[in-house]
Specification:
Elements: H1 3-20, H2 25-35, H3 39-44, H4 46-50, H5 53-57, E1 62-71, E2 77-88, E3 94-100, H6 106-122, E4 129-134, H7 143-157, E5 166-169, H8 176-190, H9 211-228, E6 238-242, H10 246-257, E7 261-267, E8 270-274, H11 280-289, H12 294-301, E9 305-309, E10 324-327, H13 336-344, E11 349-351, H14 360-368, E12 372-374, H15 376-379, H16 382-395, H17 402-426, H18 433-452
Parallel strand pairs: 3-4, 3-5, 6-7, 6-10, 10-11, 11-12
Antiparallel strand pairs: 1-2, 2-4, 7-8, 8-9
Helix pairs in contact: 1-2, 2-6, 6-18, 7-8, 9-10, 9-16, 9-17, 11-12, 13-14, 16-17, 17-18
Bound molecules: NADPH dihydro-nicotinamide-adenine-dinucleotide phosphate (NDP).
Amino acid sequence: MTPSTQSSRLADIFAEVLRRNPGEAEFHQAAREVFDSLERVLERHPQYADASVLERICEPERQIIFRVPWVDDAGRVQINRGFRVEFNSALGPYKGGLRFHPSVYLGTIKFLGFEQVFKNALTGMPIGGGKGGSDFDPKGRSDGEVMRFCQSFMTELYRHIGEYTDVPAGDIGVGGREIGYLFGQYKRITNRYESGVLTGKGVGWGGALVRTEATGYGAVFFAEEMLKTRGESFEGKRVLVSGSGNVALYAIQKVQQLGGTVVACSDSNGVAYDEAGLDFELLRRVKEDDRGRLADYVEQRGGSAEYRAGAKIWSAAEAGRVDVALPCATQNELDGDDARALVAAGVLAVAEGANMPSTPDAVRVLTEAGVLFGPGKAANAGGVATSALEMQQNASRDSWSFPHTEERLREIMQGIHENCARTAEEYGEPGDYVLGANISGFTRVADAMLALGVI
Ligand code: NDP
C-alpha cells in the first residue's frame, strides 16, 4: 500500500475507535497519540494492517463493571462503581494498577489500560496490560471505611484475577494500605496465599523492596539517560516535581540523591515552594506516616518554605530557572501555556512520572523547542517493571536486597531508554522518544498477536 493509503487507513480505524467509545476523551487522546506514530510502521510492516492488529489492539479483551456496596462509619450504605479493563494478554497476564479517585469512569480506565499495554511491552517483560479502579474517594475516609470498601471491591474482583490471569497493583489512591486490605480479602475468599495475585504488597508479606520507590526512581533514571545524551546530569539542576503522592515523593528523593534540588511540589489544593530544596524525610513522614497534606508539611518545615493555595506548579517557572520538570500527579496537568512557561524558564528535559500528564499541545510546544521529552509509557515504566520483579520473587519464594533490585530497575530503565532512542533513529526521527516508545511497544505486542492467531 502507498503511504497515503496507510494514513487514510489509520484515519478510518481511529474514526471507528471514536464511534465505538463515545464520550471517552482520555481514551481517544491516548489512542490518537499512538496512531500518530504508526504510519511508517504500517508502511514497513503491511502484515499488521492485513491482520487488523491495530483494530484488535484498540478493543479491550474484556471489560468488567460492577457494583461496590459498603457501609460507612455512620451505618449508611454507600454505592460505588468498580472497573477492571483487561486490555491485552498477548505478552502475559494482564498487569496494571487500580485507581481510586472520584473522577474515575470507564474512559479513565480505558486510557490507562491502553497505555499500559505498550508500557508493559516496553519493559521487555512477560506482562500484558490492564487497569482498574473505582470512583470511590478515599480522602477523608477512616481506615475502617477504606477496609470495608476494599473488601467489597475484592468480593467481586477476585473471580477475574489470578497469578496467571490478571495481576493488579496500586495507582492514584491505592497504596500499601489498600493493597493489604485487598489481598486479605482475596486470601480469605479463595483460601489461597497466592502472593503473585497482587503487587505492591508490604515487604513483610510478599512485597518486594524498591517497589514503593520504583516509579519515581525509574522516571528519574529515565530523565538521567536523556540528560546524558546532551552531556548533562542532575548535578546542580533546579527541578519541579508535580504531585506529592507515591510517584512524586520518590522522584524527589532520587533527584536529591543525584545532586539536584527540587524547589517545588504540589497537590490538588496548591503548591509548596522551597528555594532551599524540599526536605524529603519530613515530606515523606507527613504524607506517608501521618497521611497529612502538603500545607501541613509547609507549616512544619517553616523557614524558606511557602504554600500557595490554588497555584499551579508550572507557574513556578516564572520565578526563575527550571532545568528539569517531572509531572507526577495526573493526566493533562501540564498544558500548552505551562509548556511555554517551562521553555521560557530554560527547561532541558521533561520526563512524565504520571500517565499522560502533558496535553498534546504541551508535547508539541516542548518537542518543537528541542526539550528532551520522555513520555509516561517509557519514563514511568519502572513501577510495573518492578512489579514484574515482585512476581518473579513470589514465584521463586525469594526476596532480593534493595541494592540488587534498584540496580535491576536502573538497568531496565536504561534498556527502555536505549530501545526508544534506537527505534526513533531507525524510523528517521532521532531524539523523538514518543515515536520510539509507541513504535517499539506496538511492534512487540503486534508480533505476539500475529503469532497467536485471531483470538
Ligand atoms: P498518589 O495517589 O500517591 O498521588 C497522586 C498525587 O497527584 C497527589 O499528590 C494528588 O493530590 C495529585 N493529584 C491526583 N489527582 C489530581 C488532580 N485531579 N489534580 C491535581 N492533583 C492531583 O498516586 P501515584 O503517585 O501513585 O500516581 C501519580 C501518577 O503516576 C498517576 O498518573 C498514576 O497513574 C501514575 N503512575 C503511578 C504508578 C505507581 O506505581 N504508583 C506507576 C505508573 C504511573 P491530592 O492528594 O490533593 O489528591
